[in-house]
Amino acid sequence: MVLESLTTPQRAERKPWDLFFIGIIYAAVGLFLAIWVFKEEASIVMVLLTVVACVPLMYNTLRLEEEKDTTIESERTLLKEHSRALSFFMFLFVGFCIAFSLAYIFLPASIVESAFQTQTNTIRNINSQISGETINSGAISGGTIEGDAIGGALLFIQIFLNNFKVMLFCIFFSFFYGAGAIFILTWNASVISAAIGTFFRSHISDYASSLGLVKVAGYFHIYSLSLLRYFVHGLPEILAYFIGGLAGGIISVAVIRHDFGTQTFRKIVRDAFDLFLLAIVVLLIAAGIEVYITPLLF
Questions:
Q1: Cα angle vertex 112, ends 211, 209, to 5°?
Q2: What ranges do the domains of the chain cover?
Q3: Which residues touch 138 (CB under 8 Å, ≥6 apart)?
Q4: CA distance linking residue 255 with residue 295, whole number of Å
């Protein structure tokens, strides 16, 4: 198909930045077709169409990374090689976010409501859960400094556990469906984009009334803040999901291509386990950033 021919894993590893623009194309085409053909269900269909465009690249990348496991002995070298794939997947994800968030900001409100309905409902549910638990922890502790510390620790644990659950989904989807993790990651891109768009729209009026927003630079400033508001902790989370998805996908390919119990299969499983541990470390860092750093910046 046309979108499939835009790149290959080998080309993507050489020029990871190109995946940023390819991600924009994939997401824009998926969104356009979803609104045009399936307007009532566009919020889900646009994710599915974007995923369909990514599946060949994702699957071929998993096969390439599994082949590296069979030819490279050093674990450090393997992780360095895997980082090439992770880098272009991150650029792909950022491209999704830019395309979806700009659509959320500039499309008419009636179209945005149908195109991002499920995503905005998801954001409301997440915010209500987090706000409820934060209020409860503060009430129990009496609102003291110690209570704030306990509340922060509880929020850290909650966010980490939620993110860990998503990472497990990525691993299982990659294992059972090969490139299945790209669905969860594309869905997360659409949810983050809806949050970015909501943040932009809610702050642009305040900025305009206080400073007189008459220049394009003002809009760019608010959009940049909107991106940073969610990318500061969101990108490490997504990186962890990609690492987990890569681990599950490598094992999935190995199960098909190698017999259980062979030395090659054990080596691949060991590499996947190292990736799993690395993903947990990245998730811990991301949760710490979200709880203790992002609130100070925004």
A1: 10
A2: 4-297
A3: 147, 148, 151
A4: 44
